[in-house]
Predict the structure.
Amino acid sequence: MNYKDDIIEQIYNILDGKIEKENIIVEKPKDRKMADYAIPCFSFSKILRKSPIVIAEELKDKIEGYEKVEVVNGYLNIFLKKKDTIKEIVKDIIEKKDSYGNKKTKNKNIVIEYSSPNIAKPFGVGHLRSTVIGEALKNISIKNGYNVITINYLGDYGTQFGKLIYAYLQWGNKDAMKENPIDELRRVYVKFHEEAEKNPSLDEEGRKWFKRLEDNDEYSLKLWTQFKEASLKEFEKTYNLLGINNFDSYTGEAYYKDKMQPVIDELEAKNLLEISEGATIVRLDDNIVPALIKRSDGGSLYVTRDLAAVFDRKNNYKFDKALYVVGNEQTLHFEQLKKIVEKMGYDFYNDICHINFGLVLQNGKKMSTRQGRSVKLHDVLVETIDLAYKYIDEKNPTLDNKDEIAQIVGVGAVIFNDLKNYRCNDIEFNIEDILRFEGNTGPYIQYTYARIMSLLEHKKNIKLDYEKLVINEYEWNIIFKLYEFNDAIEAAYENFDPSIIAKLLLDIAQDFNKMYANVKIISDDANNTEFVLSICEATSIIIKEGMRLLGIKVINKM
Ligand code: ARG
């Protein structure tokens, strides 16, 4: 049963439908001693021509099915029937298990583009955020009943690949390329730029090779494919550690190289193109910088490929929404993309959503190597897993499968740290902090889960006699939080914000640990023991499912 909906429905009926349902606001007071739900009646006054207090009094007498209803300063305060509510929620969770909180199918398609690393470059911490936020949004969207299509839009095109081919042919080492392709490609690419400083004619060489690539010259394509495959193989190691590797499409930028012309033609036909300093642009509204569609040398641009891609996605997937999980620094790019689609006369521009996010910082500064380069995500994950291993070994040296557990804890710590705050904010990465077993961390939640699992070994699955139970505030608090999982799932989708779930899980773990510290879980009273263990079981189900939505595993022992 949905208590909020029930309250709204009842109020709507009592007031003869004079107040629209969306204007009946049901608040959840922070202090549950005040009420479980509170409905402000002020806004009803105007329409009903009565004071809020009179209205609240009338509602109070007529609302049915609750423990207690009070009127306080124009608020209607409602208290749930504790035993009935607990019985219902616990039973519901234990019955439904991981399907608890699943929403009705929406029959709508959501395309989520995320991760999208650039080939021949290291998979850096910058792409970590896109990858984990995107993965969580995928899980959350499915939980909300949407059909999801995931796309990894690889950065595999652009003039830099001409330079790279030239540089590899000049200075590349085959063995090094086999050993460690990304490092080798990085090395020759850096060398290209050093040499080009001294000898600008190299840029011309780079352009020539890029032109060959554009014209599908076989040899250039072969090298490019080799770079791409080697990169994907490297990326796979990182994806495997993260437990993410099931994109529906890996169609990158290069796929669109021959699909841009029709879009350019359409822009032309709609009189949207202008020549400016030799380049072709689309002028947008006054407050957005014009978008560059074609370079003066005829070369295509990032936004041109994205335009081709968005039409392709619309055609292929008939999306109701297309999400692009990409950092804050590309905000202008996506504004331009949307605006161009709007100017072309397509309403679906409204369904293009840039899901932006902040930077990964270390000690308040953009995370980078000592040489100022991007830090490899793989290295960060390995380092975190190693430290997790050390901590686990200190705490519990006789544990089985320490390697596997350390991986789950280490990776979980990194992902949770990324998702626990609103995505638009920057995140701070401190390996010791994210691994703390006490604190706002992934390991804290995993640890709580493992604690519950060991308690559950005592559960006998006897039939509960609810009448005999005396419910304390710790139990009541946690049950209500578990129930909030339903709202959190919806809110996380509506705001495209996984942190809503992460924060709820932290609250649940905290409330659970408070209960654990204050309530004797296993006592001589078999009925009460069974009851508290049922709460434990329900808690474990919500934690596990919530963590799954975030892309994090739990473990029974740690
Ligand atoms: N590969 C790009 C980068 O690393 C991100 C791609 C963003 N997606 C897009 N459709 N433009 O910066």
About this structure: The CA atoms of residues 69 and 311 lie 54 Å apart. Residues 158-215 form one domain.
